[in-house]
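User: Here's a protein and a ligand (methionine sulfoxide). What would the complex look like?
Assistant: Let me lay out the input and then the predicted complex.
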Amino acid sequence: MNFENLQPKVAEIVSTANETVENRLYQICRLLQEQVPYYDWVGFYFKNGDKNELKLGPYVGEPTDHTIIPFGKGICGQVALSNENFVVPDVNAQDNYIACSIHVKAEIVVPIFVNGENIGQIDIDSNTADPFTEKDERLLEFVCLEVSKLL
Ligand code: SME
């Protein structure tokens, strides 16, 4: 499925009123992981209440020990502070990186804003080296905008 066709699917999941928010987020993870061959781990992290840390939300892929990530730590923690997309073509070239699996070669993190506040992010790990382009950023920005309607 190409990215243009994925967008209405994401919007459809978001607007499924009889599902919990948790389940809708999980379905989005599943859709993306199933439809994009180089998306190997897809998950959401959200600001953990008033704390300066991220808490793991729905995800698909290998279980991770990193269910809590302090702001500033790793790629995710940096995005919590920078409010900007972070595309990592080669995770081994990053000093401030939290490894979840030895198979991961690349990562992309896109923040989610509600009323202008950075309240979480979508995080995607790839076992393929340097797979992400601007098309991934635009797709994931769309996903984050849709998800923000639920939060
Ligand atoms: N690699 C991330 C940690 C989360 S895992 O990818 C699921 C990071 O450096 O923040």
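Summary: The chain is about 35% helix and 25% strand.
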